[in-house]
Amino acid sequence: MNLVWKTVAAAFAASLMAGTAGAQDTIKIGVTQPLTGAFAASGNYVAQGAKLAEEEINKQGGVLGKKIQLVIEDNKSNPTEAVATAEKLISKDKVPVLMGAWSSTLTLAVMPKLMEYQVPMLVETSSSGKITTSGNPYIFRISPTSEMEAKAFAPMVKKFNIKKADFLATNNDFGLGASQEFQKMLKEQGVQIGAAETMDPKATDFSAQLAKIKASGADTLFVTTAVEQATLILRQAKEQQVKARIITTGGSVSPDQLIAQAGAAADGSYHLVFFTPWFPEAVKNPDIAVKFVGLWNAKGHNVGGLTEGFRGWDGLHTIVAAIAAAGKAEPEAIRAAMWNVKVKGINGDIAFIKQGPAGRESAQNVPSVYLVKIDGGKVVRQ
Amino acid sequence: MDPLLQHLLNALILGGTYALLGIGLTLIFGIMRVVNFAHGELYAFGAYMMYLWVMVLGANFYLALPLAVAMGVALGALVELVLLRRLQGADIDTTMLVMIGAWIALQNMEQLVWSGVAKSINTPFPSAPLVLGAVSVSWNRLFVFVVALALIAATYALINRTKIGKAMRATFQDRETAALMGVEIGRIHTFTFALGSGLAAAAGALLGPVFVVYPTMGDLASLKAFAIVILGGLGSIPGATVGGFILAFMEELGAGYISSGYRDAMGFLLIIAILLLKPTGLFAQKERIG
Fold it and tell me: What residues of B are in contact with residue A305 (Cβ under 8 Å)?
């Protein structure tokens, strides 16, 4: 080996060592979100919310005397990529804890890796029941399960006088899970189930499904999907004169975006959401909600993203609370400490209960669920 | 109330848009034999250009349509001149890989420029649908259907009734002989690719306002376009048209009367069946290989 190469190698080795020395001054937290692909809009909002939390926490001195540093990876809305990002974050970046992965299908894909590497993950959005009932003790979910959403909605069945309901759900873990849980809840209240339709997560034309739904004559249509498809469903339902009351579930259908893009077709629709930025003073922890909305707007982020962005903020604060309680940034210590955290979040007070098979329980938060209505281009409380 | 009539009307309207998607690709994939994975990106590009003209620059809707299509034609010509021109004579795999690269590059560029948030385009059409007894259809979709049929007829006439159409057919039947007869085959390649791209951009510009515009919108369009072209037979404009309608009717009736979960599978099941019985597709002639 000649001298030049030796010098280069030495300099490279030195820079690597400098890198690790620098890294010790921060605590890394891994985030896997869909920043490109079908769910890009929502994934970017969650990442923006998490970054706001990172700035805020570091401004207040970080945790354990160190600054926190987010390592955000793009899972491309693709389960295979989601697994690759988790593997990269854990084995290359050596993060002791993860947050992700937005959609239920993406989260379910990552879960075996958490078992393999014994690293905990905070789940900020996914709502499929399977995530917390499959016996993965590394899962800590702050978003509500579809079952919880259905229960939260149950008192409204009488109020709306629902007699017969149709379903239109995206054909994945999220959509099918929600469709099942809401059907179960409605049947218990004696509501008749009409058409239960599904659609490909990428589909843009729902004319066949809507023609069938129109013919069923139900008074209410439950829609479970992301905001892009929900926009199209509202518009196409109007084109086909579907008269049923439309209610979306899952908390990822931003009413602001619907008002902007579906216009008059969004009027009269109802949406289950987990944060109500239109009236931040009315939520459980109004001071935090007002502060978050202020920071979000100061950055010039899209207001339509607030109902997604808060998930990143709440998730990161929960993780940092667990690191503080653990006293060290190691996966097992964080996992153990997470069970006892009490965090004041935008959605409400975050704390975990046990779900799933005994001995291998996953952790589940009991979040607040709100129902809002779009009326005359405005969001109103129900 | 039986939804059959509504299903049939929906399928007819959807079929027009599928046919439009199919004819652009049948020129490029069927006649030029370029496995054009970037076709869906031209569709998305057309939709984004429509968004640019109508929503950003405030142009008139009917003026924005030809402008968006012209920009699609220009992008198609650029792709042909920069990428495909160098690949003439290269094997099909090389070209395919380059087009996969173009697909990824274009899609990520759209994401970079426009961000991942879906956009919608305002139209001059009334939001209340046209109601015909028990069935209804939106004015916007009806407009798309009529324009799509006109574009299909114009493309068919261009290829079968004009001099340049004859030159196109000659070039892709036998390059060398066409060149010997004085056809400028380089220009014909550029023209054909630009025309196919323009048709994809037209589909995007027409359907962007019907649906919403987002960076990955081209993926599904590509998939359907390939299915339609293979179904109808490579290079056949009537084939792509009929293929588009067959796919739409299969999807609509399959979803309506069998299961909506298998809506997108219905079309592909039909394609498998047709290819088993008539491997060249419905309309293409048998061809000599090599």
Answer: 117
